[in-house]
Amino acid sequence: MREVLKMSVKERERKAYLEMVKQGKITIKQASEHCGLSYRQGRRVYQAYLAKGDAGLIHKSRDQQSNRKHPHRQIILALYRDKYDSFGPTLASEYLLKLGYSVDHETLRRWLISEGLWIRERQRKKHHPRRERRAQFGELLQIDGSIHDWFDEGKHTCLLNIVDDATGKTLSVMDTGETTAVIFKALWKWIENYGVPMAVYVDLKTAYISPKEGEMSCFQQVCKKLGIEVIKAYSPQAKGRVERNHRVYQDRFIKALRLAGIKTIKDANRFLADEFLPDLNKRFERQARNPVTAHRAVNGIDLNQIFCWESERKIQHDWTFSYHGQLYQVKKRMGETIAPKSTLLVRTHLDGAMSVWHNDEAVNVISITKDTLLHQNSQRNSRETTTVSKAIKHNPKRDNTIFFKPSYSTLQREKEIQAGYAMPYGH
């Protein structure tokens, strides 16, 4: 069976000139000039042609594996198809490195494109001018929630995300929706970790900004207590850092949850705090231009009394008030120091507990029902009736007016008569 050789156009041209040298029609020097070779190289090529024929003109690395070829290409592509389908090249290369396969993300990108596994769609967006980052860590926080199908189950939940404008450091908490409660939890955790920031950048959702002119939302009230400036964002592009951060989470966090087999909000929050956020901040956090932090220390502030919902209630003459359909009564010892119709401040905390305050002092209350209140009133009336009956029984001729005292105006007139300021009765 005859051997088949693959020759390029350049190699076929050399064969023609070297055959003419062999026949004595031209010299080696002339053939070298036509082939673009030096005289010494031309002699080496001619000697190889005489020794091996056409095979001596073929490049030695033809049909050989390149020394630069990645030894695990097929294994990596198989892993991508099985485990990391829909992962971007950069993220996939990071997970492959954890498995012991080192490949540059650009190399992986070329492989995936050649195999038809990756198509990058160009996204065209409206141009917005770039805003310079703030200089200090804690000078401005961008806060926003991302409503997304985080567990790939067709059910949308919320990932509340806080991003520092100067450094890009991020902190996130997952919950069922973008509510005041999850905003409180995330900001509380940030303050516990880093301190009180100078300002926050939020959109116009009612969880952040009250739609009524002259009123403040619960979030605005909390920021006012802590001395945090609330800046309104009138477009998503205005707070672009947190919006871009959502894309990072929707790419990386969903895949991390899938690989870890996490399907609940509780487990997702634990995974965020223990693994995902430390790794994400290590990769993407940058140094602020000013290394001095702009956060303020908490200085012993009870954050449980700050991050809460507040309502005012009027205390009634029986030292009771109603809150969310439930009747509460101030305990006797506290009731002696609080006048009826006084204003009480009722706070509902994140853990569901309730506390009552009057003039910055905690008030002890008990929850009662209307039946209990009616029973207390009937017992009190019964005791008063029994006292009067006993007094009349033991002193039948006693003046009963001691039990039915005259009005304030009558007593006052009698004092004026005794002092000579008024005429006696009957004049």
Overview of the structural elements:
It is built from 13 helices and twelve strands. With 427 residues, the protein is an alpha+beta fold. The mean pLDDT is 84.
Which range best describes the helical content: under 10%, 10-25%, 25-40%, 40-55%, 55-70% or over 70%? 40-55%
CATH homologous group name of the largest domain: Ribonuclease H-like superfamily/Ribonuclease H
Q: Shape, please?
A: rod-shaped
Task: State the major sheet.
Answer: 5 strands, mixed
Uncertain segments of ≥5 residues (pLDDT<50)? none
Structural class: alpha+beta
- Strand proportion, as a percent range, falls in 15-25%
> Mean pLDDT across all residues, rounded?
84
Instruction: Report the top-level CATH class of the largest domain.
Output: Alpha Beta
Provide a quick synopsis of the model:
With 427 residues, this protein is of the alpha+beta class. The protein is 41% helix and 15% strand. A hairpin with an 8-residue loop joins strand 1 and strand 2.
